[in-house]
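Retro notes (design track)

What went well: tokenization of the new backbones is finally stable.
What didn't: we kept losing track of which sequence belonged to which structure.
Fix going forward: every design gets posted as structure first, then sequence, in one message. First example under the new rule, 265 residues:
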């Protein structure tokens, strides 16, 4: 299998082939998901919530993103690796955005970066694509805007908001993004945006019409007890497997049945 590039994403949209995306934050998960045939691995700043235990994504730093991106890249052979730009790494000015995006590519080894925002962030997207850093946009329910949104709420339900999201999607495409994440918006609006854009749309809580889908790996494996949005489909209960395995180990050690002859020299 040939390693995926951003050109494959465009080809897949044209061919009507769905694009599969999952988050990954470390080497073993990256290996497993890559071997399973995922198209894109996203080193999401969701790691702030699901790995680091913060309340939201805002505290995540560039150093944390680079550390996790490097681990994911080491475990990946075929998938395209996209790294999130954390809060305040691109909002202040284009120079800082270029420097930080460059670090995710050069030090992290990602092939593209993702940042949140629409028309207001279009100049930054253009500044990054101008220095050959592929950018994935992200509009709708953008977790870094939690305080403006007053929580994680579906966006674009009213006409004015929906029109703004359509304009944001257009601005992100015109600025040169190679794909765009549509998060937490009505399925019908996501379908309209998908039909209107030439770049692929990747949905999360945005219905089936998007060109691809992304979910947080900890959510689909049942590893995140804190928060389970309606759009998450749980494919396994890995938390139960971990907990039962740990209890069995504790029991064996307490009873003196581990290590037995088979596990001793
Ligand atoms: O941080 C993240 O994991 C994301 C996806 C959920 C889209 O941005």
């Amino acid at each position: 299998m040939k390693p995926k590039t951003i050109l494959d994403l465009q080809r897949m949209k044209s061919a009507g082939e769905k694009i599969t995306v999952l988050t990954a934050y470390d080497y073993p998960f990256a290996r497993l998901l890559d071997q399973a045939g995922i198209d894109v691995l996203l080193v999401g700043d969701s790691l702030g919530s699901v790995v680091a235990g913060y309340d939201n994504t805002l505290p995540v730093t560039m150093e944390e993103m680079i550390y996790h991106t490097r681990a994911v890249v080491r475990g990946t052979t075929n998938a395209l690796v996209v790294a999130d730009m954390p809060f305040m790494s691109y909002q202040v000015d284009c120079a800082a955005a270029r420097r930080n995006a460059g670090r995710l590519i050069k030090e992290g080894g990602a092939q593209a970066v993702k940042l949140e925002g629409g028309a207001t962030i279009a100049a930054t997207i253009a500044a990054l694509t101008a220095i050959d850093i592929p950018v994935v946009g992200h509009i709708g329910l953008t977790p870094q805007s939690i305080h403006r949104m007053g929580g994680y709420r579906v966006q674009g339900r009213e006409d004015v908001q929906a029109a703004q999201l359509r304009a944001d999607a257009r601005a992100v495409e015109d600025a040169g993004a190679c794909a765009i994440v549509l998060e937490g918006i009505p399925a019908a609006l996501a379908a309209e945006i998908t039909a209107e854009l030439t770049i692929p749309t990747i949905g999360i809580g945005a219905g089936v019409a998007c060109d691809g889908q992304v979910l947080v790996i900890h959510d689909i494996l049942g590893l995140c007890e804190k928060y389970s949005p309606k759009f998450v489909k749980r494919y396994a209960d890995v938390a139960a497997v971990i907990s039962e395995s740990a209890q069995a180990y504790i029991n064996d050690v307490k009873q003196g049945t581990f290590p037995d002859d088979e596990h001793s020299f």
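Added context from the reviewer: The beta strands are 19-23, 40-43, 80-84, 112-114, 135-140, 179-183, 201-204, 212-215.
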